[in-house]
Amino acid sequence: MDASGIVITVTDAALEKAVWFRSRDPEPERLALWLEVTGAEGATFRYNMYLDHLDKACSDDAVQHHNEIAVVIPAASAPMLRGATLD
User: What are the pLDDT digits (tens) for 50-67?
Assistant: First the structure.
């Protein structure tokens, strides 16, 4: 993990849902939950959340491992998401 440590908090409920969606893929262990900021209007951000291969993460992206699933936050999004909670 880069992006200077833990970026977001992920609740157990959110992790459970992500693991369930990931389990529907033929190779679930290769997938991570990606969360990125796609735009902003004033102080309000627009987000994109999706499953994609963990090995696509760059060295400066934040990769947080949560039991059964990794969460990837692209480096450009990390400052805007720092301190957020995914629920």
Answer: 999 999 999 999 999 998
Strands annotated E in the chain? 9-10, 31-41, 44-53, 62-66, 69-73, 85-86
Q: Residue 40: which residues within 8 A CB-CB, separation 6 or more?
A: 46, 80
Do 53 and 31 meet the contact criterion of CB atoms below 8 Å apart?
A: yes
Please state the pTM of the whole predicted model.
0.89
10 Å Cβ neighbour count for 67? 9
Which fold would CATH assign to domain 9-86?
Hypothetical Protein Aq_1857; Chain: A; (2.60.300)
pLDDT digits (tens, 9 = 90+) for 16-31: 999 999 999 999 999 9
Closest CA to 49 of 72, 24, 70: 72
Backbone conformation region of residue 42, classed left if phi is above 0, alpha if psi is from -120 to 50, else beta: left
